[in-house]
Each structure stands twice: as C-alpha cells, then as structure tokens.
From TrEMBL:
Keywords: Membrane, Signal, Transmembrane, Transmembrane helix
Transmembrane segments: 142-161, 173-193
Organism, as annotated: Pontiella desulfatans
Presence of keyword Signal: yes
Top-level taxon of origin: Bacteria
Name of this protein: SH3b domain-containing protein
Signal peptide residues on this chain, from the entry's feature table: 1-25
InterPro entries: TPR-like_helical_dom_sf
SUPFAM superfamilies: TPR-like
Length: 264
C-alpha cells in the first residue's frame, strides 16, 4: 500500500472546501485533520487504523469535506485495518476526483485482489462487442482528444470548402463531421449511463442476498456476499436495495450492509 500525503496538503485542501466558515469552525476541522493524520501515522495495528479512519470519516460525513486526497487516505486507513469493503469504497470515491492517480490505482488493485467474491464481468453480446468494441476499449480521455481533433479538422475543412470547389474539401468535411458526431455520441452515452448508475460496495463482513426485499424471501445464492463485493443499485426501497452484480445477476440486500460510492 502506498501513501504520500502530508498534513500540509490536507490543510490546504480543507481550506479550499471550507469556504466562508467561521474561524472557529476552520480551526476545529484542521485540528481534527491533524489528529486523524497523527493517529494514522502512529497506528501499529488494525484497531488503531480503524480509529484513524473513523476520524477522517467524521470530516466526510459530519463536516461535508469532499476531495480525492481525503477519500484516498480514508481508504488507506481501512486497508490497513483489514476492512476490504470500506477500503474499496473510499478508493472508488477518490477515483471520482483523481482518476489517473498512480498510487490510488495501485492500492485499489491491491484491495480488489483481497476480495472473497471474485465475480467475473458480464461478457457483452458478440455483435455489440464487434460493433462497439472501440467505444468499450478506448479510454474516455483519448476519445475526448479525438473528438476535439476531428471537430477542429471539420471546421478547417468547412472553411476550405467555402473557398474551394474541390471534391476533397467536401469529402474531408463530411468525414470529419461524421467522426465528430460518432465520438460525441459515444461520450454523451457514457456520461448518461454513468449518471444513471449507482455503484456501491458491500461493507458488511458478509450478507445473505435474497430473492426479494425481506428476510422471508429465499436466499438468492448458495453463499453470502462478502465485504468488497461491488454492484449497481437497481432499485432503492429504503431498508432494502435491489442490486445487480458484475456478472449481471440480481438480488436484494439490506441497505445497511452496503454503501453507495456517491455520497448523499
């Protein structure tokens, strides 16, 4: 596990988050940050790391501080406390703020390897895989750069076409315009799907998944789900969540056995 964030960075990030809070509130939050960071640095066993994690969690849930470095450190605390579920949960939260952070990626992969339930990803339909493989396999950042490049080429070709009767100008404008439209549709679709999805993580040590929203329903699987299992929320009925696992199977779990990556 890697961790490289000194307390000075937390102070700076906290001040950015605090806005117009009173001096007393700012001082209290910074004191809490320093206390939590000190507990993390001096921890020698899982119980001490868990207590440090709770101190950081207080800043997240009670004080409303949100930034990637804070979530990353909370994840590190839970990782060292041997709580795989909460480690993955907070790494996923940090990922929303700093998706390309190398140490975060390393620690997340380390936590994922410790999961009890290794559920394979659902394979896409062969036809969809052939037609949309580029959409699935091309990183979002690269598609944004390709879209920007094609969009600029399109307008360059458009101005060329306005001043020339050459066939090449029309072909170039048509090709770059079509590519721009395809890439933009890919990016907008991905954004729409991500906003609708509600990813979550099981944080209970284990939970018996059921076929309905109550303990009277039969178990959905032969074995319980364990801490660190990831899912998407299909339906929220307050005390019970209807979830979909990575392989496409669905079940119901008690809401208090898991948390969503997005904070309310």
């Amino acid at each position: 596990m890697k961790s490289k964030f000194p307390i000075s960075i937390f102070k700076f990030l906290a001040l950015l988050t605090l806005g117009s809070q009173t001096a007393l509130a700012i001082d209290y939050r910074l004191t809490t940050l320093e206390t939590a960071q000190g507990m993390f640095r001096s921890a020698t066993n899982s119980a001490m790391y868990a207590e440090a994690a709770r101190q950081f969690d207080f800043l997240v849930h009670e004080e409303g501080i949100r930034n990637g470095h804070l979530f990353y450190t909370v994840g590190n605390c839970w990782f060292m406390a041997n709580d795989v579920g909460r480690a993955i949960l907070n790494y996923r939260r940090a990922e929303q703020y700093m998706p390309n952070h190398a140490d975060l990626k390393h620690n997340l992969m380390s936590a994922l390897e410790l999961r009890t339930d290794l559920i394979p990803e659902k394979e896409p339909h062969p036809l969809a895989a052939n037609l949309l493989g580029w959409h699935i396999n091309t990183p979002t950042t690269l598609r944004w750069w390709l879209f920007a490049f094609c969009w600029l080429l399109f307008w360059g070709a458009w101005f060329w076409m306005e001043r020339s009767t050459k066939k090449e100008a029309r072909v170039t404008a048509l090709a770059t315009g079509l590519l721009s439209a395809i890439l933009l549709a890919s990016l907008l679709t991905e954004t729409f799907v991500e906003r609708r999805a509600k990813p979550g993580v099981v944080v209970a040590k284990e939970v018996l998944a059921r076929k309905g929203d109550g303990n009277m329903y039969a178990p959905a699987f032969l074995e319980p789900l364990h801490s660190g299992t990831e899912f998407k929320v299909v339906e929220d009925r307050q005390k019970w969540w209807h979830i979909q696992l990575a392989d496409g199977q669905t079940c119901w779990i008690p809401a208090n056995a898991a948390e969503t990556v997005a904070l309310k």
